[in-house]
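We modelled the chain as a single entity of 1237 amino acids. Its sequence is:
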Amino acid sequence: TCRENCEMRLSICFVAFLCLNFEGSLGDLKASLIGGSLSWQVDPKFHDATSPSRTVTFTLTTLFNQVSGCTYTEGRTVDCSATTAPTGCSGSACDAAKTAINFGTLCIAQLQYCSSQNQGSKCTQFITKYWPEGLDNFHCLSEVNMPKNLTGFSKPITSSQIGKTNAFTVQTVYSTVCSSGGDVSHFKLGCGTSAVLGTLTHTVTVDDDVVGVVAWLAPYGSATTSLGAKGMLFPACTDSAAPCSVNVADQVARIQASDQSASYISTEFDPVTTEAMGLFWKRWWSMTDITDAMAWVERGGSGLAYPSCKMKVGCLALASPALETFVALCANRIDYSDPVVHGAVGSNPYPADAMCANQPIKNYYSPVSAAPLAMEVAITLNSFQSNTAVPRHPYFYLHSYDLDGHQMQQRMPQYRLTTGFNKNLGGTCLQWVKLADGTSRLVPLGSAFCKSFFDWDRDTSRASGNIVSLNVSDSQAANYRSDPYAPLWLQSFARLNNPTAFTCTLSGGCGGSSVCSSTTGCNDDTAQVYAQYIATTVDYMYTDVDNPQSLGSTSHIATEAWWGSAWGARGSSTVQNVLAAYPRFAGTANQPPSFVKSQFSSDTNVSLTYTCAIGAKCVIPLFVNDFVLNATTLASGAVIPSGHAVGVKMAVGFAVVSDALNEQPYCTRGAAASSAIAASQGALSCPYRLGASSAPFYGDADIGTVFVRCFVAFDSHVDTEKPGAISSQSLPLCVKIMITGPRPAFVAPTPGFDALGGLLPGASFDDNGQSYTLRADVPACEGYALQMPLVAQSANANDQVRIFVGDWDVDPSLYSTPLYLQAAGGPGNPDFFSNLSLPSRGVCGQFGGYGAVRQGNNSAQQTVAAVACGLAGKVLPTSCAWRSVVTDYLPSVYYAPPGSPAQLSVSYTPSTTLGNGVLVRNQPSLCQPVGSGPLAATCRQKQLNMDQVVCGAAYSNTRRRLNRWVGQRNPNGPDLAWWRRDHSNGDLASDVFCWRVRLQSPPVFVTDLSGLSTPFAQNRWQLTVDPTGDSSAYRHVPLRFNETVRITFVAQDPNPSDSVMLFLLENPGMPRGMVSSGSRCIATGSAQPACKATDRVPTGWPNVDQAVSFDTVNSTSCSKAQLTLSWSPTAAAVGSSAMVCVAARDDSTQCFGKGPPRATQQGWWGEQQCVVLDVVGSSFRWQGQVVDGADTAMSAYVGCTALVQAAAAGLPPAGDPGLYPVVVSLDATAPPAGLPP
């Protein structure tokens, strides 16, 4: 029997396996391509200025069915030396040809630019440089047919410049065994199909004059011979062919009929132009570019023959789907050894933008689409239900990644007939849609759309990859002969059993002739029916990774166009996957296990993306639960495990690594007390280890690398359990894993951080006292230099670190030069680092620029943009489309030495002299009295400009060191608040952190125009900067005894939220009898607004922007205060003077310990002002007949009346008349008869 002939146990070599040999003809392959992928990466020194390394490395992964005669040893190159050499080969080329005729050739076409020098060539943009002239039996040059010299070339060619035979290294061998003891061997692909998984690496040396490379998997032999209906895939199913594909003929027919490759992508963003512009390879054809270069019969005027492949699109389409891909490159110099293309020396036939000096490479890595190359689709009774929430066949997640950090999109461009039984055999991308009743269902995205995504996309629905469903069918009918919607599994059963009536129902299971018996079974060796699918991934390059909105950018990526006729638009790439699915009936009372969140869990919403830190073991948790068949709702409620023995193994296409799972080759140990208990319960814990099991683990060189690993869960049943339970496996669970390095981190003394880089709680509060996250308050104290220290370091000693800090949001109307990478802040919000004068603030005055400066490491970096354009003469801030993962940093960017912390400080001194944040009303014209009394005291008042918020981040140079994107993807995307766009652009970076620079100033004494409120010496208030200790500013107030005097001191703090108190100083104290009113608050209104920035935590913080604006405060409660002294001196005080001093203090502790000696833990003491009270006595001067200071002698005559007039006037101190009243009286020496007049 076939089983007897084919069944073998695992051994090193396999010979003569395939029961039904499928020998291809010339121009075909003996083996059929079951699945595969092709990716590439460009050497980072491709256009290095001093020592370029112009190479591109291709990695081809293929899964072929085994061919008899070849030997397959894991870890070694496939050996087909025992097979018969193809006709026509000779010498050593036959050794390569024996492999090529079985497994094909990785074809390479180096493309020159096609110009007017081509002397009549029909090409328009590209022409293939090396081609098998006169060898019409081959698609390309390789070691099979490589001549020493090509006609027209003076230089010999080497094997590194052309294609390479697919002599792959064997990764895994899959046998045909279907063991009666339970199908648990990870070597089984599908019963009856022997297969081999292999990888081939080919590093291509790119000539100096080449501007692009096309690579594809080509069959051996004639390029003009049609490959027939199957391409390189399985043949179409007939009654005898095995293995076979049920949908390949339609797919290949479509490719050939429409003159286009299967590798095309529709754009998620622009469905209107999907067909016109969204077809990657068809676009090449419509532009007569690559495919012309591979099809023209003439090469210039030399008459050198090119094989036409008898197709407009050349040889590529005959093999498609052939894992085809294109690498956009640039030329280093013109190689005039090829005069047919380039003309004579000095003719300069290439456009300037085709040269690396003018148009560097932007795309160094193709996307990598890592998918299972073959997967089993389990058929259960649920397959016959009409469940609208889940596809008839389960779905899986398709992962791709891109080390350039680009956005990607996937597509399943499978051909679908409008009628016929293969209509529903295409792959479909799905999305969850919420229904009105609150439940969700999966629906197709439509038009073959799949969601675009970045690696580790912040949109979690995109980060997990696209949801792909294969063979969706909406029909409950099961007669494949009449049902136009019959899915793949029905065709498989019908072909195996060939019944006249073949039906499957929920209650009765499958019926018909000899279906699912304990001896015949449903899944034995001869079924071998496959459906093959094509998945493509395209990357979207950044035109400007910084995406400055102020420069008119319309999108955060390259305007969604990955193709353009201009050279500057080129560089995007597409890669292709071919994968296969085959059905397997699980039995009438069985279903495959499910991956769940934890052991014994029923939640199937498992994590699909992981990160592993360097220097530590990388372990991915895997949990499996096998539910009983009637468990239809796995997401909630208690679900009963089946009790079956379950295991986990690597999906097909992923090589088994010894001990990577708990038990190799499959894992059956659980986290329960014993493996037997776990198996009997049908629940399993099976962690997967990526990389080494002990140190050294992944290290510095691995940072940013991405791995995809796919697993399947299976249950194991012996034949005696059929047809109730038949061994089956789940669709693959694929996880994406990135190796991460430590991000640089701010550490103390950086405000807001401790010595280990932890965030300090309560570092910043808004106006309402609500705590701000990711922000710290830093006071800027008037008259004292703020030196805000920023220190950052990386735990990776190989990294260098820099810090950038800037003003993230600015009012663009304040400056004539457009902003660059700064958000449009609120009205009146200046740039903290600009010293340009600002427009008038109205009542708040006209401030100068803040003029803050950066000092220390990296102080020369003035904008957040750090990556250079990569082109001489192209300078920022103009948009730059020439940046990539290998682009260097701007000359202004400085990194601290490896292992050393980066240190940067922000220096700023608020000064009334500069007006850079603080103004003072020190001129009469600036006083704005309102009413009378203390409110009229506005002279000497200070005004503050708004507080400023600056933000910064610490960055490593890891991206440039390793030449791959290692940091956050899409770091400046429109979904991020402006202040969170770190512009790391591939490097590792800390979280953006902000510091609120809080302007602080102590209270000052304010007065009126006359200098009486808060008395100042006459005409001295506008000349006095600080009256503390300045006796020339003290006002002397004369007073007489027994008279009451009242003196009011008024002080105001420019910080409207501060509270001011006035204190009478103990030294010199106050005279006896003086009474103080104590400090009393003065409420202010809109007539005397204070100036500030309103600061409140916005709803949604920290994921929203805060557009801070300059604002005024129309009322304050206690930022202004008064103290009144009352005194009535007694006569005993006559002739004495009393000095009384008052000091003002606010309640802000922001500046304590920050420089100002008067700033205390109770508040900042401001000015001291004194007044001198002079108590004067009586003093007069005689007037009239009495002479002051001398005796006056007068004659008196007897009998006559003598009249003596004595007058006196008081002498006022300081010119104050009428201080005291004057009384003139006679003393005892007057004549007795003397009477006063």
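As a brief sanity check on the tokenised model: The chain is about 5% helix and 25% strand. The longest strand covers residues 529-540.
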